Hints:
This is Ubiquinol-cytochrome-c reductase complex assembly factor 3. The protein is an all-alpha fold and 127 residues long.
Amino acid sequence: MSSMRTMLATWGLLGTAGIGYGMWVAFSPGEGRKQEILKNLPEANPVRMEESRKRNMLIMQVLKEAAETKDNIARGIGYVFHAARGVMRRGGQTSMGTVAQIAFAACLAAWGCVVLADPVGKSHRKE
């Protein structure tokens, strides 16, 4: 009975994988459509390309400053937040990564407050 169950599970898995591959092949764009998509990428627009270059230049500037300093920048208070805030102060465009970094910093700060207020194993139930 166990071998029958194993065979059915294996065939079910292979069948699901086969259906997924078949749908991927059926719905993928043809070669002509791929070329059209490549022509219309945002990087083909000169204005967006200049924005990308400026953003990359700002990121490289931050990395260069971090490499040249002898200080451990990760040790500073609020490093996660200040790194994202520094990019915005320099005029960098607010990307989803920057927003995610600020949200992560807020979650990290909240978690730190919880740990400081009630460290693991220190609270006791009052019965």
